[in-house]
Amino acid sequence: MGKKKNQKQQPSASKDDLLNTLGDFTSKENWDSFFTIRGSDDSFEWYAEWPQLRDSLLPLIQQHPSPSSPSPSSSLQILVPGCGNSRLSEHLYDAGFGDITNIDFSKVVISGMLRRNVRDRPNMRWRVMDMTQMQFPDDTFNVVLDKGGLDALMEPELGPQLGTKYLSEVKRVLKSRGKFICLTLAESHVLGLLFPKFRFGWNVCLYAIPQKPSTKPDLQTFMVVAEKESSNELHQIISSFDHSSLACNPNQTSGLLEALESENQIRGEYLNGSDVLYSLEDLQLGAKGDLKKLSPGRRVQLTLGDQGVSHFCYKAVLLDAKQQSGAFSFHCGVFIVPKTRSHEWLFSSEEGQWQVVESSKAARLIMVLLEASHANAGMEDIQKDLSPLVKPLAPADNDKGNQIPFMTASDGIKQRSVVYQGSSSLTGPVVIEDVVYENTDDDVSHSLPFRRLVFERTEGLVQSEALLTRDGLFDKSVYGTEKKKASSSSKSKRRGALKRNNESSGKMKVYHGYLASSYHTAIISGFSLISSYLESVASSGNRVKAVVIGLGAGLLPMFLHGCMQSMQIEGVELDPVMLNLARDYFGFTEDKRMKVHIADGIQFVRDYRNLFSAGNEVLLSSNGSCKLSDAESRSTAIDIIIVDVDSSDSSSGLRCPAADFVEDSFLQNVKDTLSEQGLFVINLVSRSPAIKDAVVSRMKEVFSHLFCIQLEGEVNLVLFGLCSESHIEEDCIPDAALKLDKLLKSEHPEISQSITDAAKKLKRLK
């Protein structure tokens, strides 16, 4: 067997005509036709004829399979799959190897070869058999000798399905210390399957077969020898030739050397203990211990599925729970992470994955991370495809053979319609969608629509969320929504797959008197810490100056603008596209008390600090630059700075804000910019306790006093830094919250109450 004409050494003209009858090298009918035309007496050698093979091949076969039990050559059991009408097995028989079995799925060629050898080689066996579905018991042969069989199965158009099945059969029928000898053109897609299949428990060597003298470089035959070991050790692949001495086709040489280097690099990473992907076969061979036994704290990344085995391939992580005091709910479970959430720290980091294991109450959790290739498949189809793949990963005591339960991360969305889908050079793809949440408690408020702003770079993280009402006006049906609505905290809530709907929400508009995001409520409740100062400013007829870094959809500034008439708000947004979207889809407007500056937030604070600390009054321009003011538009110290920005680097574990906003230099600039009674607020989103502790530690070094609100059931931690040496005692916070409530002119009483209630959760970090 072999490959297509343009991938082989060029046969004679008569052979060219015969090759045209084949076409598909995996078709039994094509091969029957080929051998019928050619006849049984005319052998066909695809490449590397006996004179070139003999000196390299015979020493490898003649080596005894085990030093402790030497066997004569005649007793070695040799299998030649895809034998065709090659004379290779005849030469071996004549060299003293009498126990040879030849198989081919072409009845025509097997019948012809049997007739050709029945007298001279009576002990040679010939069987009609599919090499991808062998009918031999396990551990039958000492040698499996393949000459072009794997190459023929690996047609690029068909993928690795047949090659995978064939190599699995080879591994099954070989005895311990047996050898798989594969004569191949060593094309990259063939080696890309062959090398990984023989990693753990195999010693692999690569040989170059000498070529016939030729006037020009030709395709060279290589020999891959994989010896089956009794242990599961991993070795580097050894090549027995000088790479620079190869005189074959340059493309063939480069493809071979790249595949060899890549595989040895992977093996080196395994040997060095790097966190790399294992195959299921690797694990079943014991690459990471006995899978049938639980090993507390074991974490293994692996791939599941293959062409011909499953509809899809999957990236997964196997985690054996660490020791815990409580009982496990089940021995083994599967947790499916949708593509929209697979990048999140909770699922992409080791620390986050252990948190999922702990909450799942599973002794072993197999976390499957879906990718773009799974986008068009339903969850039922995914589970059906995964079921047979995860069964071999279950521990031996898996609930007495009970079915492995599947879990998944849902977004709780009942309806979704996309009202805008576009892109920004700074932010990337952006989606604005109207959603209705699933009704989980029979509450009518779940039928209310919400508008959400989502960045694709942080899929699963809602940047902004607003309630929609008729014409954006107050509606009594809003009552109760704050407590009843499913948790939808911006910059912490996931979202599901998009479903485009070109129908708009009619006259439904954003209602700015309602806070849909609980962390916005927490931010405003922190104003209680300086409520006495805010009250004194308002009573004197002056205005509190607040800067909000990170506009998003403009919902927090718009709420403050409507509720606190004594507040002058300056928004700072890096991306001008965000400002346009806030205006067009979220009803954001500017006036004398509301200005937006298109600028970098860190640079904005630095420039303001440099000018203001020198005793100058500062003029803020619309492009965010700061300069000395004239008599008009004078700016004094800032009273409140709020940082509400996301991080584009989700791998850091810090989702909000970007890491630069918690650096010592920025924090110090913030403090220098604030008034003596100033307040710094930052929305911190991270599932890593270590990251949160580091941020808190930095802020303690800069600010006189530090308070926080940990949102219940969410990852948001809102931090409040005070500049004043004096601070409010925790037992006085309820009274301070009531004072703040009087300053807020909210037409929504439950919002006012939720702010007051949130203030009671303020804790001082000592």
From TrEMBL:
SUPFAM superfamilies: S-adenosyl-L-methionine-dependent methyltransferases. InterPro entries: Lys/N-term_MeTrsfase_sf (IPR051419), Methyltransf_11 (IPR013216), SAM-dependent_MTases_sf (IPR029063). Residues 81-182 form the Methyltransferase type domain. Belongs to the methyltransferase superfamily. Keywords: Methyltransferase, Multifunctional enzyme, Transferase. This is Methyltransferase type 11 domain-containing protein. The keyword Methyltransferase applies. One of its GO terms (molecular function) is S-adenosylmethionine-dependent methyltransferase activity. GO terms for biological process: methylation. Residues 1-20 are annotated as: Disordered. It comes from the Eukaryota.
